[in-house]
Write a structure and sequence with these properties.
2 helices, Ubiquitin-like (UB roll), 3 strands, alpha+beta
Length: 122
């Protein structure tokens, strides 16, 4: 006799084909699923913009749920999903030390160069 609980997956209906078993799913709750950050591109040629977050079991499910939640009115042409645990950010408290080395490279600023008189609109 098998004593292990049956695993349910996205889209599964609890119970056997006869409808006799109504055991609740033994998987983790949706809030235990990883958090995904959602980025939508509204038109070709534009940047992807962060529109929100959602929980999903995997990347495919995250894309499908993002489509249903964030593009219900055909607002997008492309969806990116990134698992939140893979995003790393700098601390605002460390901004001075992080960006300070760029301050001594004046050759990166366009004010260093003289433009010819023929160039009007730069």
């Amino acid at each position: 006799m098998n004593t292990l609980p049956r695993r349910f997956f996205y889209g599964d209906i609890p119970g056997d084909n006869n409808g006799g078993d109504s055991t609740p799913p033994s998987t983790t709750a949706a809030t235990d699923w990883p958090l995904w950050e959602i980025f939508i591109r509204s038109k070709q040629g534009l940047d992807h913009k962060h529109v929100g977050s959602l929980h999903a079991a995997d990347a495919r499910m995250a894309i499908e749920n993002a489509r249903d939640v964030y593009t219900r009115r055909l607002e997008g042409v492309s969806i990116w999903v990134v698992e939140s645990r893979h995003i790393h950010a700098s601390s605002p408290d460390e901004a001075d030390s992080l960006y300070e080395p760029a301050a001594d490279k004046i050759y990166r600023h366009p004010t260093f160069y003289q433009l010819p008189d023929e160039v009007n609109h730069m």
